[in-house]
Design a protein that fits this description.
Blueprint lengths: L3 E6 L6 H13 L2 E7 L10 H15 L7 E6 L3 H7 L4 E6 L2 H17 L4 E6 L9 H9 L10 H11 L1
Parallel strand pairs: 1-2, 1-4, 2-3, 4-5
Helix pairs in contact: 2-6
Length: 164
């Protein structure tokens, strides 16, 4: 039986921090479902379809990760419902800094209350990627800064196009 983990997020855009979590997750699980959140109360730079395309290009074209081990989908439901749909009892979340912990701790607790069979596994990105956030990447590119240390080539290209 394949062990599947769900990795939900906005990925607006995907960064090397997200990619670290995916790569580490692939060492632990047979398959990772990258759930691109499409909750309507968020203000996204990229549409859901654009974010899915960006994630696919970053993971499969730029980094040549195994397409058989990663599924990328859009979702607007509870993450616990996504777990049920993909027969997973594991939610992957990334932690960068202590400031992330309180929110992530509450989120993990709520998911556990919604489904007692679901566990949240926290993975830390490598030290050089712990400071990266999608918000900072967007701000830097908007101010014409260099973001090649933060995300993939195809993502940079799409970000620059968005801010032209």
């Amino acid at each position: 039986m394949n062990k599947v983990a769900i990795y939900p997020g906005t990925f607006d855009p995907i960064t090397f921090g997200h990619i670290d979590v995916i790569k580490k997750g692939l060492k632990l699980f047979d398959k990772i479902v990258v759930g691109v959140s499409n909750v309507e109360n968020k203000d996204y730079l990229f549409s859901s379809d654009e974010r899915i395309d960006i994630v696919k290009k970053a993971l499969f074209n730029d980094l040549k990760l195994n397409k058989k081990k990663i599924t990328i989908i859009s979702f607007s439901s509870l993450t616990t419902d996504l777990c049920r749909k993909y027969r997973s009892n594991i939610i992957l979340r990334g932690l960068r800094a202590v400031s992330d912990f309180e929110y992530e701790f509450q989120l993990a607790g709520m998911n556990r209350k919604l489904n007692k069979n679901i566990e949240t596994l926290f993975l830390m990105s490598d030290v050089e990627n712990q400071i990266i956030s999608s918000r900072f990447v967007k701000e830097i590119v908007n101010l014409k800064g260099d973001i090649k240390k933060f995300t993939t080539k195809s993502t940079i290209k799409l970000l620059k196009r968005k801010y032209e």
